[in-house]
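SEQUENCE-TO-STRUCTURE ENTRY
===========================

Subject: a protein chain together with a token-level encoding of how that chain folds.

Sequence line: the amino acid chain in single-letter code, read from start to end.

Question of interest: how does this chain fold, as expressed in backbone structure tokens?
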Amino acid sequence: MSNRQTALMYCICFLFVSSVASGCISESGNETAPPTTTGPPTTTHTPTEPSYTVQLEDEWRLDIGAEPAFQPILVGELICVATEKRILLISREGNVLWDEPLSGEVRYAPVTYGDSIYLVYADGSVEHRDGSTGDTMWKRSVDARESVPVCAYGKNLYVSSGKYLLCMHAESGDIAWRIDLPESAVYSCIVRSENKLLVDTYAHNVTVVDAETGAILDVWDARCDMENLFVHDDSVYAMGGFCLTCLDADTGGVRWEYEFIEEGGSWTPAFVRYPYAFVSTIDDMVLCADMGSGDLVWSDDAMYRAGLAVSGDVLISGIAYIPGLHKIDPGMQGPNSVTPPGTPERKLVAWDIHTGQRVMEMSADQGLKWPVAIGDRFVFVTGRSLKCYALGHGR
């Protein structure tokens, strides 16, 4: 099986087995692993005893009626969550501000820009919701039935499906332009870098498109898969299955490339809190990479690929078992929301983002996943509920 086919397999699991980032548990203790980069010599840090600690205090739990289909997203400091049939907006205090039915099966996680929410349905349509009320502003069919990354930016919404990319006016849903893409379908994402769109396409390429006209400006090639793109300042970062690559946003030239020496690499997007990119590997390591140099800052093994969030200087991970994205004994069986019999208890762990020091370990609900941070609060999904903890600091 090719790397691309393997990537597609993981992507399918990622989208349809109710996860955006998940994994399993390692018992090997704290470890570091020196990366191989094309940039400066690498230094690593072994996490030590923390200089401070944090505590999580129960704030609230809210039953939302069904298990969310995707990781919650933030609309300002409000939480938007979609289940199979409904979409809700919830305050940081756990109050439901609105609760509206969906008009079909939502295929991909909602996208926000300002107070607007955009949904892609399985019937090939895109819908714009008012984030303040939940009302549908417009819904348009774009035959989006294959791979449908969506990018909202300013007055435009960019959507791709099959072999094309189109630009829609965000206020009306009218199509401004449509172009055919080279190298077949978009694989994972569309991102905007100033006046350009960067589109991940097959054959390890990034297609560069003029954001206003749709003209294809360039095609960047790289030897590694160019997936799950993200942008900071004048750099573009690509999360491939076996490396994290930093490219010049103007030329596409490689600035550095961190080859994952950790077995299995990573197939999930990085979680970014500049200047760090946090990467979860298939073998349950969490890696902290410096976005400027590609150096590995620290690594640890208590990572379950069930989501990451940062509040202040504190990084936290979900701990849920998510079938299809964990490497476990094939004999273990269990429903999606239940940890299989024989799985060791997982501790809820938090780290200092700069040093990798563990600042908290505690027993918790084993279904916690997909955390989001709002100020000093972490909100997790657990089954058909949302669970909120307040973050407090010790010594």
Remarks:
- The chain has one domain: 3-393.
- The helical segments are 3-16.
- Residues 3-16 form the longest helix (14 residues).
